[in-house]
Amino acid sequence: MGSQEQERLLxxxxxxxxxxxxxxxxxxxxxxxxxxxxxxxxxxxxxxxxILGTECCERLAYYGIATNLVSYLTAKLxxxxxxxxxxxxxxxxxxxxxxxxxxxxxxxxWGRYWTIAAFSTIYFIGMxxxxxxxxxxxxxxxxxxDAICPSATPAQYGVFFLGLYLIAxxxxxxxxxxxxxxxxxxxxxxxxxxxxxxxxxxxFYFSINIGALVSSSLIVWIQDNAGWGLGxxxxxxxxGIAIASFFSGTPIYRFQKPGGSPITRMCQxxxxxxxxxxxxxPLDSSLLYETPDKISAIEGxxxxxxxxxxxxxxxxxxxxxxxxxxxxxxxxxxxxxTQVEELKILIRMFPIWxxxxxxxxxxxxxxxxxxxxxxxxxxxIGSFTIPAASLSSFDVISVIFWVPVYDRFLVPIAxxxxxxxxxxxxxxxxxxxxxxxxxxxxAAALVEIKRLQIANELGLTNESVAxxxxxxxxxxxxxxLGAAEVFTFIGQLEFFYDQSPDAMRSLCxxxxxxxxxxxxxxxxxxxxxxxxxxxxxxxxxxxxxxxxEGHLDYFFWLxxxxxxxxxxVYIFCAKIYKSKVATS
Length: 584
What we know:
- This protein is mainly alpha-helical.
- The protein has helices at residues 2-13, 17-23, 44-66, 69-75, 81-95, 99-110, 112-135, 154-174, 178-183, 191-225, 228-248, 262-275, 311-314, 321-326, 337-354, 356-363, 369-375, 393-418, 426-457, 475-499, 505-534, 552-576, and strands at residues 377-378, 380-381, 384-385, 467-470.
- α5 packs antiparallel against α21 (505-534).
């Protein structure tokens, strides 16, 4: 109450402009009631523990479901390997598709806080539904009797997938908003706070991996040994804690008001350019329409300098004689240069964005084919059995290892050769990650070749039993995947944040996540095509239910080849890419 009264008195009595800039944030942020906020008692690091705690618990809940989902589908819902892998990748793809919904709602209507609040509730309901489907006997099929495994009924499938896809919808409001909402707690006009913002992203990524590490080790072990009801119930509990953590910080959060739909602005450019298709673009770009003020007409955005590419879109910024005479500027007929350049930037970013899809298809194997491969290997250490999905913890450990190694060792070394402050450019960083992904798939293929060789030598080809090859031989492929993730995924986050238009950063964040979605769908598509082609003529195919009689190594080599081709295309796109130039 004291701080609110202090703000009210300051606003009523009036304060000098220079004092106001010291007391209040300069980026337009407000409190939950829409009032200007004091720097001294809102935002900054004091608000971040609530947001980081939310992200850590939410990621623990998500990975608590995703990491071992393929095992639940095969062991409890009695699905085949291909069907289970397809369902997992399709669901994961949806989880990274729905952020487009959340981004548009947050940017145009609700703001980030209320978007996170609403979708977190949906997420929690989905977690509870999923827990019930694994706990209540009527909601799950009976256990296998000898070799007979009864299929799940449509109603049992319905309850399970209802919970699963409510979670997918819930992630749509959290993923594109929570990191940006955390960054909103730092005033971009304050030099000291702007420096702290960069540190926030490091801790944000760290909190994600802490949640993932707990899930891929402890939660997976509970699911395999203590039961799936408890294994799903604990992540649901942590999702509840995430919601409580998020709301606890409400009094000290800083809020940014939504600034209008970026999709609407892009549509306006397309419509306006079509309407003026017959008008010639002036040779002097200064004749194109732009606001005379230093501030852009788009709220929350700096002006963007004109570029000579895609001149057909410049037609949207041509001032016709009628508009010049009457001064009637309809945004569906006339757009500013900055608005046109927003669309140009997205088009220029598209080839770089598209190359992330194949990488995401490789990344999807960690929770599908890597797990199914591990289930057919020796998972025991003495009397202790390791769940195959727990090996994904080595991916998380790899990330935790490579982040400080990259920051403290690789960047200073690279800086001596490149002369760049960050050592590598964002495009170089992503390219290195794409190369490592080729090595990852090659390592997985080599392990599978050795596993099949042992199965053949021991006469286990026709038996669906684990081969006496330690599951720890999978560690290199997980460790390489973690290294590729540090280079490519973090590079993508930096690239899309830095190169995106100021007022489209939520949308571009969602588009970055969309590569993960499309990568999962691509993985499902490849699985479907490979199965269809290789099972012709009654053959077992590359990926049968009994992997001992299949050729999963061929599938891994296929992905390695696609990754190599994707890297070549990426190098070409990166060489011709032109960076954004924003005017101050």
